[in-house]
Amino acid sequence: MIATGSLVEEVTFVEAVCAAQRDAMAEDDSIVLLGQDIVAGFPFGATKGLAEAFGSDRVLNTPISESATMGCGVGAAVAGLRPVVEVDFAGFLYLGLDQLLNNAAKMRYMSSGQIRVPLVVRVGQGPLGSFAAQHSQSLHALLSATPGMAVLAPSDAQSAYDCIRWALKQQDPVVVCEDLRIYRAKGPLRRSAAPSVGARQARAGTDATVLAYGAGTGIAARAADRLSRDGVEVQVVDLVSLAPLDVSAIAVAARSTGRVVCLADDSPFFGVGPTIASIATCEAWDVLAAPVLTVSAKPVPAPYSERLEAQVYPTEQSVEVAVRQVVDWVED
Amino acid sequence: MIATGSLVEEVTFVEAVCAAQRDAMAEDDSIVLLGQDIVAGFPFGATKGLAEAFGSDRVLNTPISESATMGCGVGAAVAGLRPVVEVDFAGFLYLGLDQLLNNAAKMRYMSSGQIRVPLVVRVGQGPLGSFAAQHSQSLHALLSATPGMAVLAPSDAQSAYDCIRWALKQQDPVVVCEDLRIYRAKGPLRRSAAPSVGARQARAGTDATVLAYGAGTGIAARAADRLSRDGVEVQVVDLVSLAPLDVSAIAVAARSTGRVVCLADDSPFFGVGPTIASIATCEAWDVLAAPVLTVSAKPVPAPYSERLEAQVYPTEQSVEVAVRQVVDWVED
Amino acid sequence: MTATLDGLRADSDLALDLYETMALIRRFEEFAYRAYEEGDISGTVHVSIGQEAVAAGMIGALEDRDKIISHHRGHGHAIARGVPVESLMAELCGRSSGSSGGKGGSMHITDIERGFLGTMAVVGSAVPIAAGVALASKLKGAGGVCVVFFGDGAVNQGVVYESFNLAGLWSLPVVFVCENNSYAITMPVAESTAGPGVAARARAFGIRDYVVDGQDVLEVYDTARRAVEHARRGEPSVVEALTYRYMGHSRGDPPHGLYRVKEEVEAWRQRDPIAILAARAGLSPAAADEITERVEAKVEQALAYARGAAEPGDPALYRDIWG
Amino acid sequence: MTATLDGLRADSDLALDLYETMALIRRFEEFAYRAYEEGDISGTVHVSIGQEAVAAGMIGALEDRDKIISHHRGHGHAIARGVPVESLMAELCGRSSGSSGGKGGSMHITDIERGFLGTMAVVGSAVPIAAGVALASKLKGAGGVCVVFFGDGAVNQGVVYESFNLAGLWSLPVVFVCENNSYAITMPVAESTAGPGVAARARAFGIRDYVVDGQDVLEVYDTARRAVEHARRGEPSVVEALTYRYMGHSRGDPPHGLYRVKEEVEAWRQRDPIAILAARAGLSPAAADEITERVEAKVEQALAYARGAAEPGDPALYRDIWG
Ligand SMILES: Cc1ncc(C[n+]2csc(CCOP(=O)(O)OP(=O)(O)O)c2C)c(N)n1
Ligand SMILES: Cc1ncc(C[n+]2csc(CCOP(=O)(O)OP(=O)(O)O)c2C)c(N)n1
Ligand SMILES: [Mg+2]
Ligand SMILES: [Mg+2]
Question: Chain A residue with minimal CA distance to B103?
Answer without folding.
Answer: A134
